[in-house]
Each structure stands twice: as structure tokens, then as C-alpha cells.
Write a structure and sequence with these properties.
By secondary structure, the protein is mainly α. Helices cover about 75% and strands about 0% of the residues.
Length: about 375
């Protein structure tokens, strides 16, 4: 708006929050001569007012349009949020459905895995049962025809297969088959022992040596008890004559005939080497077991003989020279056995760790019987 002097006042003054119209008018009409410009001033003010009103109207209109747009934007945002929430809920529902489907699929897969595993176990058990039944029937046939080499291999397979069915013994068919296998094992054991007994009784070792050697393989398959039974039988059979001839109560069993005892056993070992060694597996160490049984029996005989000699009441005392001679010959015999079996004994100890499988030690195996009576020799020296 122009002032009285023709200048337009700074409109910013009208925008001031501290605007004072009286001061503004006094500034415009500061002199009476300026009153003549009232009409101009009024017209300028009206024009400025109109401009302000138009500007306000425009601002109001723009603000109205902006408010509508803001409302529309807010409404659109609300609609978008509603749609977003709906989609999120839809996604969550689908996720739950997917999770349920995956859980059902996983359960189905687990059931299928269990079914597959059970089916595999059943098929394996059925196959083993079929193999066991077939092997059992074949084993019976081989046993009847005394084909012991094939029996030994098949018996091991039957025993191993039978071990897989220990947990199925509650099933009648499996229990019956298990009893049949056990019965067949006992029949084989008795049959082989009978074969040995008949062969030795008829002196047909040379003719049936091969069959008996194969029978020993079956005894190995039957286990330690079966092998021990045959070893014990063989030792007792071979030493039966010795025990009868050199009984401690007979004349042949006296200390005077001690050299005959050892000569008899040397012949027995030669017979073993020539005729019997090929029948028995090397790891049985049958000749050592035979020697050990001989030493144990001979030691007990000498203990009885020496004990009776000391207790004699007919005035005849124990012959010191004979005692020393017998002891010397016994030590030499033990040394011979120790030298013969030392290498095989060490190999056997390395091979078998159990105490029952260790080779006998022949040092003092017989001479131990003489130790309590060495005082007789000491007393004789003192005299």
C-alpha cells in the first residue's frame, strides 16, 4: 500500500504479530498536508485487502484440496493396511496349513521308514530262517553219511544262524528248530566219539584216519567241551594199558622198573607220531596232553610207592641209591619232554590266551613226588 509521500509501506509490517494500526496511520499521515492522500491510501488498502483475501481464499482452497487428498491418502492407507493384514492373516493361515501338511507328511514318512525297517528285518529274518532250515536238513544228511569235512563248515554256519534267533525262542517253530539243532549237535558228538572208540577198538586207525581227521574239525565247531571230551578219551584210552601194567601195587610198578615206564611212553609217543598225529589238529597239541596225562599218573604212582616204602614195618628201608637213580632218570625224562615240547608250547601260549589252552610244563612234572623223600638221602649221608 503506498504512503502519503508516494511510497508503499513494507507489507511485512502488516504481518507482524505486534502490528499497531494507530502507529501505522500516524506514520502515514504524519503531517496535515498528507491528509489529501487519504483516498489513495484507502484505495491502496482496499486493493491490498482484496489481494490478501484472494490469497487467503486460494490458500484455503488449496488447503481444502490438500485436506481432501490427505483424507483420501489416509483412507487409502487404511485400506492398504486392511488388505495387508488380510494378506498377512492369509499367509499365516497358509503357513499353518503347510505346517500341518508337513507334519502329516513327516509322520507318513516316519511310518514308511518304520515299515521299511520292519519289512527289511522281517525279510532278513525270513531269509536266515530259510537258510537255517536248509542248512539243518543238509547237515542231517551229511552227518548220516559221515561227510565230516562238509559237516564242520555247515555246522559253523548253522550255529551262527541259530544265534540270530535267540530273541525268537518264544515262537514255537523257532524253539522246535533250536531243539532240533541242539539234538543234532549232541548226536554228532556221540557219533564221532563212537567212531573213535570203534576205530581204535578194531585197530582200523590206518584205514579211517582221514575220516577221523575230518571228524576233529566237527569237534572244533562243536566247541571246547566237545574237544576236551575227545582229548580226555584219547589220553585215557592210550594210557589204559600203561595203568594196568604199571599199577603201583604190582611188581612192574615198583621203582626198579622205572626205566620200563619211560621206555613204554617213548614207544607210545612214536606210535602217536607215526599213526595218530595226522588225525588231530596241530592246535590241539594232543601229544603234549598225552604226555601231561602220563606225567600226572606216574607222579601219583610214585607218591604211593614212596609212601608205602617209608611206612614198611618189615625192616626194609627205602633204598637210597635206588631213590637217587630213579630221581636222576626222572629228571632226564622230564628234560627230554621239555626239550621236545618247548617250541610248540611257546607258540601255543602266544596263540591261545586262555589258561585251559596253555601247554603243560614238564619241569618237575614227575620229580615233584621225590622231593619229600630227599631227606632220606641226607640222613644216609650223615651216617
Amino acid at each position: 500500500m503506498p504512503q502519503a509521500n508516494g511510497t508503499v509501506p513494507n507489507p511485512s509490517s502488516l504481518d507482524s504479530a505486534e502490528y499497531n494500526p494507530i502507529e501505522h496511520l500516524n506514520a502515514i499521515f504524519s503531517h496535515p498536508s498528507t491528509l489529501s492522500s487519504i483516498s489513495k491510501t484507502s484505495s491502496a488498502l482496499s486493493t491490498h485487502q482484496d489481494e490478501i483475501e484472494r490469497e487467503i481464499s486460494n490458500l484455503v482452497q488449496r488447503q481444502s484440496i490438500s485436506d481432501v487428498q490427505s483424507v483420501q491418502s489416509i483412507q487409502a492407507a487404511k485400506n492398504d493396511l486392511t488388505e495387508l493384514f488380510r494378506k498377512v492373516e492369509d499367509v499365516r493361515a497358509r503357513a499353518l496349513q503347510t505346517e500341518e501338511a508337513i507334519t502329516e507328511m513327516t509322520a507318513d514318512i516316519k511310518r514308511l521308514d518304520n515299515t521299511k525297517r520292519n519289512l527289511t528285518l522281517s525279510m532278513t529274518a525270513l531269509k536266515r530262517l530259510q537258510m537255517l532250515t536248509t542248512a539243518y536238513e543238509q547237515l542231517r544228511g551229511l552227518s548220516s553219511s559221515r561227510q565230516y569235512r562238509d559237516c564242520a563248515q555247515l555246522l559253523q554256519a548253522v550255529i551262527q544262524l541259530m544265534a540270530h534267533f535267540k530273541s525268537y525262542r518264544s515262537i514255537d517253530q523257532i524253539a522246535t528248530l533250536g531243539r532240533n539243532v541242539s539234538d543234532l549237535q549232541r548226536e554228532l558228538l556221540e557219533q564221532i566219539c563212537e567212531d573213535f572208540e570203534v576205530t581204535f577198538a578194531k585197530a582200523e586207525v590206518a584205514q579211517r584216519r582221514g575220516m577221523l581227521a575230518e571228524a576233529c574239525l566237527v569237534m572244533d565247531s562243536l566247541g571246547d567241551n566237545a574237544r576236551s571230551r575227545l582229548i580226555t578219551w584219547y589220553c585215557n584210552t592210550q594210557l589204559r594199558e600203561y595203568r594196568q601194567v604199571f599199577r603201583s601195587t604190582e611188581e612192574a610198578g615198583s621203582l626198579d622198573n622205572i626205566s620200563r615206564r619211560y621206555a613204554w611212553f617213548r614207544r607210545m609217543l612214536k606210535t602217536y607220531d607215526d599213526e595218530h598225529a595226522a588225525m588231530f589238529p596241530a592246535h590241539w597239541r594232543m601229544n603234549e596232553m598225552l604226555a601231561n596225562a602220563f606225567c600226572e599218573g606216574t607222579r601219583e604212582d610214585f607218591r604211593n610207592i614212596l609212601s608205602r616204602s617209608v611206612r614198611r614195618t618189615d625192616g626194609h628201608s627205602l633204598d637210597v641209591d635206588l631213590l637217587l637213580s630213579c630221581l636222576q632218570e626222572t629228571l632226564e625224562f622230564e628234560h627230554t619232554l621239555e626239550r621236545r615240547f618247548s617250541n610248540t608250547s611257546r607258540a601255543s601260549i602266544d596263540t591261545f590266551s586262555s589258561d585251559s589252552e596253555r601247554a603243560p610244563v614238564f619241569s618237575q612234572a614227575i620229580s615233584e613226588a621225590f622231593e619229600p623223600y630227599l631227606s632220606v638221602w641226607v640222613e644216609a649221608q650223615d651216617k
